[in-house]
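Re: that backbone. Tokens:
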């Protein structure tokens, strides 16, 4: 292997793309076979067969990844539902900041293990690694159902953060490696829709499981963790047989001709279908790109209100609006149906019109408005409408930011690092949610609401700055004055 980032990238380029790629270091010239949008490439298979191949990939890849991640998300965010089902009283979580610590410790572990997990994924194989992670956090969840004190629950939450750290970035990384830039938006939205619907269903399912109160001497909240953990393990082990690996390793799924079609169309779009080697020097090189930190902040601004609603909406419904514990769990579900519809619609529009930043900004503003209404409106109907508005427009933001980033990244090594750093921002949003939404301020959570508002407005400003930068450098690239990401005829997506 070459000693430096530049050397080995050049070797990889010359070895894999000898006829179409000349130099690979960022800022230097790499010839491509397309016009920057991937529209020029012709495979010779014919449009109908090409569509059938893409549909086969969709059916094989998206449902299982969406199902596995949606279950992991439900596992991660069922703390609020367990709280209203008796966990707070059993573990003494009302004392001091115990509940806040339980929320935070998950995200600390989650952030620390993001990049290491994403680097293991290509080496271990997508199916092997994602199934292993899923089975692991399912086992941890089962253990949480038998916890008898809050200290052991904190340990379980840390283990849950470690095992879940690589799951969403792994799924996102795998999906973006299979599709062209303007096919990714609606597919990440479809992947995310399952998580929206499952988040809504999770509250109803949690209520049903809480009815097992007293069985085997366990409270209802214990059964929430145990049954969901068993389901998680079963689904993720089953996923091992279904998940397809990266395009260059899909020999059991595609014929040689079909595999060549998939690889060449991705290379025509952005030139990174094949994996390039990665080492510490390359990771540090990619981490110098300021855009990675803007996207990480954007995702933090998107996950912060999401975790806030997941952890605290049942409590707001119960303590702030006066609903029973049962009604609080059931009323947490309907807003996620609207969220699924909005997420797909916005993802489809983003792909159709090839636009990312402005759509995310509008969604973040509407989410912040919804949270203000939920917290400070007087009538219960208005507050519940605020939850619909906030959750309904929030859920697109995560796949939107991930697509925004994926559309403006080239090289598989950089895609891996960028996805992980972006997810670290998402985990930081969970930490901020746990700290800012103080139990002492229930049910209005004034500090949390205004923290969310400030971060959302900052995120909108950063999206504006980045899009203005993209417009400027795209004009220069079209005038032949520069190369974006070292690629000829390749333009950033605003």
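Recovered sequence:
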């Amino acid at each position: 292997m070459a000693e430096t980032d530049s050397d080995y990238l050049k070797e990889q380029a010359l070895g894999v793309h000898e006829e179409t790629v000349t130099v690979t270091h960022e800022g230097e010239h790499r010839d491509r076979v397309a016009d920057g949008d991937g529209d020029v490439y012709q495979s010779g298979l014919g449009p109908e067969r090409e569509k059938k191949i893409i549909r086969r990939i969709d059916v094989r890849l998206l449902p299982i990844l969406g199902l596995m991640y949606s279950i992991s998300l439900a596992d991660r965010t069922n703390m609020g539902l367990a709280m209203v089902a008796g966990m707070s009283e059993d573990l003494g979580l009302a004392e001091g900041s115990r509940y806040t610590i339980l929320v935070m410790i998950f995200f600390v572990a989650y952030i620390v293990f993001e990049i290491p997990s994403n680097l293991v994924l290509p080496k271990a194989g997508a199916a092997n690694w994602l199934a292993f992670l899923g089975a692991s956090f399912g086992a941890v969840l089962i253990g949480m159902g038998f916890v008898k004190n809050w200290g052991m629950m904190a340990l379980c939450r840390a283990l849950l953060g470690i095992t879940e750290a690589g799951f969403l970035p792994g799924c996102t990384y795998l999906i973006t490696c299979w599709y062209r830039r303007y096919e990714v938006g609606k597919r990440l939205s479809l992947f995310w829709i399952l998580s929206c619907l499952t988040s809504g269903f999770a509250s109803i399912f949690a209520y049903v499981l809480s009815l097992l109160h007293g069985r085997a001497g366990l409270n209802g909240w214990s059964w929430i963790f145990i049954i969901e953990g068993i389901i998680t393990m079963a689904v993720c082990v089953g996923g091992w047989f279904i998940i397809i690996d990266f395009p260059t390793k899909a020999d059991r799924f595609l014929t040689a001709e079909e595999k060549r079609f998939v690889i060449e169309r991705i290379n025509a779009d952005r030139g990174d279908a094949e994996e390039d080697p990665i080492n510490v020097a390359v990771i540090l090189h990619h981490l110098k790109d300021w855009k990675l930190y803007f996207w990480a902040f954007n995702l933090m601004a998107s996950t912060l209100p999401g975790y806030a609603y997941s952890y605290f909406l049942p409590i707001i419904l119960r303590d702030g609006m006066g609903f029973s514990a049962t009604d609080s769990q059931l009323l947490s579900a309907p807003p996620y149906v609207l969220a699924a519809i909005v997420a797909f619609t916005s993802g489809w529009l983003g792909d159709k019109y090839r636009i990312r930043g402005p759509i995310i900004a509008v969604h973040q503003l509407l989410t912040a408005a919804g949270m203000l209404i939920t917290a400070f409106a007087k009538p219960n109907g208005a507050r519940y409408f605020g939850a619909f508005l906030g959750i309904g427009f929030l859920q697109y933001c995560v796949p939107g930011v991930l697509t925004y980033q994926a559309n403006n990244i080239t090289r598989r090594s950089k895609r891996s690092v960028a996805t992980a750093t972006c997810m670290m921002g998402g985990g930081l949003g969970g930490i901020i949610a746990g700290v800012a939404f103080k139990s002492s301020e229930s049910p209005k959570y004034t500090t949390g609401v205004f923290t969310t508002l400030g971060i959302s407005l900052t995120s909108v400003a950063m999206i504006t700055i980045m899009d203005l930068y993209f417009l400027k450098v795209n004009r220069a690239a079209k005038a032949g004055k520069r190369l974006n990401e070292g690629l000829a005829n390749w333009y950033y997506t605003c």
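The CA atoms of residues 47 and 347 lie 23 Å apart. The chain has a mean pLDDT of 82.
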